[in-house]
User: Fold this.
Amino acid sequence: MWTLLICFLSEFSARLYIVPNLLDAMEERMTLEENAGVGMEIGYHNPGPLAYCPHYTKVNKRFRMYHGICACANILSMACSTLHLYFLSTKLRYALT
Assistant:
């Protein structure tokens, strides 16, 4: 049962505290890229003239940090869900035998 609680709390806290900051950083980054005429590539990132802009590097670093935190919260949630499914399957196996 504690695994479901961890799963819920990780996703809830990420959605409540991290995602709004992530969306703000993503919007600011996309605006900077659109104004510079870069960022429409698929599969790779070529900042072009923004590579030496200190404001862009700061925004990009902030976006990547929030994106990584959200990814870690999702991985934690999936791991806890897997553990809970394992717990349920072992309970079911012992109940059937």
Summary: The chain has a mean pLDDT of 91.
